[in-house]
């Protein structure tokens, strides 16, 4: 399995890192009423929850980029590099979210999405 495919697994699991921080960095977590608990979050735990949600939103685009680039014949080493960059940027994105660094977070988000766009643009020939 390629590094890029392992990165798809890492990206699929990443939302649970952020939600774990949201749930266990504050008191009162109630697994029987999770939605009520999430509504009561504030500060850093709330931002961790938002990072959790955004990680789910970013995942399909990334997974599609890796898979389409792989079946489209893109250079595996380049796709591996882009996938690892995406994972690193998404971890930095979550850290910026937790730290409430909105402008930096937005710039990191743009960079992470650019890695996926580059995956699509590195497919040789025409896509039929």
From TrEMBL:
<feature type="transmembrane region" description="Helical">
    <location>
        <begin position="81"/>
        <end position="100"/>
    </location>
</feature>
<keyword id="KW-0812">Transmembrane</keyword>
<dbReference type="InterPro" id="IPR023352">
    <property type="entry name" value="MAPEG-like_dom_sf"/>
</dbReference>
<keyword id="KW-1133">Transmembrane helix</keyword>
<feature type="transmembrane region" description="Helical">
    <location>
        <begin position="58"/>
        <end position="74"/>
    </location>
</feature>
<protein>
    <recommendedName>
        <fullName>MAPEG family protein</fullName>
    </recommendedName>
</protein>
<dbReference type="InterPro" id="IPR001129">
    <property type="entry name" value="Membr-assoc_MAPEG"/>
</dbReference>
<dbReference type="GO" id="GO:0016020">
    <property type="term" value="C:membrane"/>
</dbReference>
<keyword id="KW-0472">Membrane</keyword>
<dbReference type="Pfam" id="PF01124">
    <property type="entry name" value="MAPEG"/>
</dbReference>
């Amino acid at each position: 399995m390629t590094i890029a495919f392992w990165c798809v697994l890492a990206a699929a699991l990443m939302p649970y890192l952020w939600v774990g921080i949201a749930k266990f960095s504050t008191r009162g977590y109630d697994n029987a009423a999770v939605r009520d608990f999430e509504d009561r979050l504030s500060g850093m735990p709330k931002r961790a929850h938002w990072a959790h949600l955004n990680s789910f939103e970013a995942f399909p685009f990334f997974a599609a980029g890796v898979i389409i680039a792989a079946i489209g014949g893109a250079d595996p080493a380049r796709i591996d590099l882009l996938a690892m960059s995406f994972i690193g940027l998404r971890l930095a994105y979550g850290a910026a979210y937790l730290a409430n660094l909105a402008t930096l977070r937005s710039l990191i988000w743009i960079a992470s999405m650019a890695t996926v766009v580059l995956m699509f643009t590195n497919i040789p020939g025409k896509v039929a």
